[in-house]
Every structure is written in C-alpha cells, then in structure tokens.
Amino acid sequence: MVNLIKNEWMKIFKRPGTYVMIAILIVIISIFGIFHKYQERQFNLDKNWEQTLHQENVALKKQMEQSNSKLEKQYYKEEIAINDYRIKHHLPFNEKYNVWSFVKDASQLIILAGLFTIIISAGIVASEFNWGTIKLLLIRPINRSKILASKYLTVLLFALLMLAILFAFSAVLGAILFGTPDHPVPYLKYANGQVTEQNIIVYLMIYYGLSSIDTIMLATMAFMISTVFRNSSLAIGLSLFLLFTGSQFTLLLSRFSWAKYILFANTNLMQYVDGTPMMEGMSMSFSVIMLLVYYVIFQLLAFLVFKKRDVAA
Amino acid sequence: METIVELKNVTKVIKGRTIIDNISFQVNKGEVFGFLGPNGAGKTTTIRMIVGLIGITSGDITVGGSSIKSNFEDAVRHIGAIVENPEMYKFLTGYQNLIHYARMSKGISKEKIAETVELVGLTDRIHDKVKTYSLGMRQRLGLAQCLLHDPQVLILDEPTNGLDPAGIREIRDYVRLLAREKNLAVIVSSHLLSEMEMMCDRIGIIQNGRLIDVQLVHELVHGESKMTYEMEVVPSDKALTLLGTHYPNVRAHRSRNGITVELPKEEIPNLVKIFVSEDIQVFAIKEVAKTLEDRFLELTTEKGAPSRG
Fold it and tell me: Which of A147, A206, A213, B145 has a CA 20 to 30 Å removed from the CA of A43?
C-alpha cells in the first residue's frame, strides 16, 4: 500500500501543474496578508473594557428576553457567559490583531486549498483512462480495490499538504507582518454550560479541520464522479460549482424542513462549536451521521463501479 | 509440453451481444501462440479477458493453475503484457516508469531493473522523459515493463502496430528468443499474416468471436496431403484436357507459364510419364507452398461464412 501511495505521489509531483498550484496558494496568502496589513487600524486598548462588557451584557439580556427563537436565546446565553468569564479573569476582548488572528482569517482560503484538492482528485482516476495507462496499472498482482484506495488516500494526503502549507505559511507570514502576542491568548470556549480556556493553536487546528469538511466531502464526490464517469472535466466542474455555491443554495432552501438533509447544510460543523446551528432539529451528531451517509454512498459507488468495470478503451 | 494458459469455454456477452463465443484453447511453455483474425473478430477482447481487464461472462481462464476470475492476483503474477500500444506516463522518465511498475510487484531489485533496461537496449536514454521517445523506444520500454517481474507468460496485443520494418524485426527476434531461451509462453495477436507466419509456432484463427481453427504454422501452410504444383508445359491446352481424362477429380487450371494442379506428390511421376508419351514438353515442375494468407482466407470463408447468416 505504501508503495502504491508513493507511486501516486510521484505521478502528482512530477507534473509542473502541481507546483503552480502551490505557488498560487502561497502568492494568494501573501496578497491576503498584505491586504490585511494595510487595513490594520491604530490599536488602542479600551481602558474601560470591563465597563463596555457589562453594558453589552445588559443589552444582550434584554434581547434574550424579547427573543422567541430557542436558537437565538442559546446564542445570547453563550455570549453573556463568555463576557462574564472575561470580566472575571481579566481577559480583554479586543486583543491586538496578531499572528493567530491572521491564521484564523486565512482559513477563508481553505476554499482555495479545496479547489486544488478537487482538481487532483478529479484527475487521479480519470487521467489514467485518458492516458491509457490504466491497462498497465490493472494487470499488476494487486486487486483493484487496493489501487483505488491508494489513490483516494493520496488525495487525502494532498489535501492535508495543502492545508499544512496554508496553516504554516500564514503563521509565518502572520508572525512577520503582525507579530506574536506578548502573552498567550487562550480561546474561550462555551460547552455544556461552562466556559473553558483552550490553547489557541489547538483551537485553530480544530477550526481548520472542521472548516475543511466540505472540501473533503467534495473531493470525495469528485473522486467518485471521476471513477464512475472517467471524465475529469465533469468531476471538476460539478464539484467546484457545488463548492462555491452549495452553501448559498442550502441557505435559500433552509425554510424547507428537508433542507437539513442536504450535504451542505451539514458540512459546516463549526456551527455547533462556535455558534448556533442554521436550522432547528440539527445537532452535531445529526450532521456527523448525515456526512457519514453521504461519504459511504460516494465511496460505495466509486469502489463498486471501479471493481466491475471492463477496461475496453 | 507444459500448459501454462488455459481457456475453458470462455464466453463474453456485452449488452445481449455475444462478442466471444465459447472459446477454448491452451498455450504451452516455450511456444509462441499467434492469435489471428480480422479486425473486430474478438482478438483484443480475448486478450483482455486473459489479463483480467475485462470480466468473463461464462467459462474460466487459468494462468499457471490459478483462475483469473477467482484468484486474480496469483494468476496475473505470471503475466507480463502490452495491451495495444504501451501507454506510459509521458511526464516521467523511462526509469521512473519502470520504478512505478516495479513497486507494484514483489521483490524487484534495482539490479533487475538495470538488467532489463540493458536487455531491451535503452540504457542510454532511460533517464529521459518518455515524451521524447520514438515509437520504437516506447515499444521497447513497454517490453521492459512486462519483463521486470520474470513472467512465465508474455502477452503482446498487436506488438508491431505502427513500427517500421526494423522495429518489427527487432520485436520478432526478441519474441522468438524469449520463447526459446527463457521457456516463456508468448501470446501474440495480429492481423498481419506474414508477421505471424514468421513469429509463431501455433496459430489460432478467430472470426466473429469464434475460434475456428488452431494449427501449427507449418501444418497450416503445408497442411494438406495434396500439394499444389505449377507445371511449365507446352502446349498447356492439351495438357489440361489430358489431366481431365486421367484425373477427373483433380482441380487444375491454366496459369501464367502453364498449368497449376493440386495433386498428391506420388502421382507426379505418373503424370509426367503421361505428358511425355503424349508429346507435351515439360520444362519445369514447382511445388507451390500456400501462404498463410491463402489458408487464412480459405478458412475464414469456409467456416466463417455460413455462421454469419
């Protein structure tokens, strides 16, 4: 299996296109960083920040009483709890914009990493058919499932590499442009009615991981389309279209109760960590189950078709 | 002779159409087996079934005793193949291509790769990208690729397609060498008859998905007890009428220099005696070997035509 993945990795990295992708990613992170540097405002710490938070809490409480939505109430309750925690532990909320803020903002570029992963994923099976090399690949003493599995794992590794580049490069660039904070800033997390502190790097890694779920799901879908239809353009086109528009469509459809079964309603798991779910009746476990169902369907389709296929072309 | 590849009642149906109809044959170690047939007869489909690229509807194929259907990995281990053109990764070097395939079989050392490269004569260019290779070089790289794991069966589908005469000859010599010295079984498919005649020991003729004949090449060409003789005789008209009276059942016709007649060898002296006594001048008698082409056309029209309707 390791050898098969080495092979796939070699085939990806002996093509110049891959380096172009990495270069584009790095250039865009840089532009993103410079853009943020320009926008950086003069920073003054609000001397009366505790006062401000108190006022905010009073306002939030009022809103909470007026609100009818259960979801909104939950949201206000969390905000108030976090504000209280800040006051109690002397943690001012408006920290100076620093490297970690930048790394968090750079997570918007995960969509770019996703785009490149989808391109690789859509080509990894279809290209073998286009090149005709599939014939020589499938007459080795290795069964087809293993070959397909090695290709899929390679796609995941590639996604991981792209995310790692994004994370590492934005951290380095952020440290240069915005500096590191003088003292470690914990992330405040509200869970089970309690506020806890979490290491910012661990938090950001989880944040990146959860933000990449739609990317991974779409890469898996592209992989399936590429395997079933042997057509990389179709796989790239459809997956990218959904990557860029999927969440908007789901938002439009969110007034229907069945919308919660749409893949994109469930890909954003951050909604359960950071905020409130987009629809009632949704929970972390519901979304995870939905994601698993989609995932299994994609994989089953890809593997069954690939195993049964007559290679005639 | 030890059988290494065996097809048993192999049938392939695609969308209700029978592409391959109940084919059975065996290939032995050390022999070159030719697979001959017009375009679309089912040569490539059969070959792809042997290497497991295409599923088998019914029947079975065993390679080295293992079924390609139920025991794919063990069966395909014995096979090295080029299916149509050897498509390699053009953006990799020849060497990287070989590394790629070497990783997919067990126990292929760097030395073995170097040895194989040497064998096909690509040592000078092996570290160049494949896209800079000529067709002949790609074909040789294809050969290197299928010889890496010391297979017992070599399968070449249309190996001489698009090669120049020198390239064709190279492949042919190479195939014969491998069969003789390494005791490999070689299965070659082609629609080029002259090619097959020079390369193969045994030939299976396939038409419309049916195996209509399997014969040794020299039997196929010299097969029948009746031979064809060309006789340079003057006057040929008289000779023909004489033939008609003495051998009423013999096929004979006028040819460029005299007459052509199909006759058992032992009848020749008799015929000459008759000709001489009737004052016919006999200048020459020549045995005409039928070419594979004649036999092929004969076979495919005799046995193939009725089944078509």
Answer: A206
A23 lies in the same domain as A71: no
Q: Does residue A148 belong to the interface with chain B, where contact is any CB pair within 8 Å?
A: no
Cβ–Cβ gap A15/B91 under 8 Å: yes
Can you give the residue range of the structural domain that contains A168?
A: 2-43+96-308
Cβ neighbours of A2 in B, within 8 Å: none
In a domain, A271, yes or no: yes
Please name the residue that has the structure tokens 């020459």: B284
**Strand residue runs (E) in B217-277:** 226-234, 252-254, 259-264
In angstroms, what separates the C-alpha of B186 from chain A's closest C-alpha? Answer: 16
Whole-number Å distance between alpha carbons of B191 and B194? 9
Q: Which of A71, A95, A119 is the last residue of a domain?
A: A95
CA distance B53 to chain A (A): 5
pLDDT reported for residue A156 = 93
Question: Is B138 part of the contact surface with chain A (CB cutoff 8 Å)?
Answer: no
Q: Which residue has the higher pLDDT, B172 or A271?
A: B172
> Which of B14, B103, B105 to probe by mutation at the A interface, max A CB count within 10 Å?
B103
Interface pTM (ipTM) of the complex?
0.78
Partner-chain contact A138 B52, CB within 8 Å: yes
Residues A139 and A128 in one domain: yes
On whether residue A313 sits in a domain, the answer given is no
Question: Mapping DSSP to helix (H, G, I), strand (E, B) and coil, where does residue A175 land?
Answer: helix
Query: Which letter, b or e, does each residue of A259-275 get, where b requires 16 or more Cβ atoms within 10 Å of its Cβ?
Result: bbebbbbbbbbebbeee
Using 50, 70 and 90 to split pLDDT, how confident is the model at A209?
A: confident
What are residue B226's DSSP bridge partners?
Answer: B264
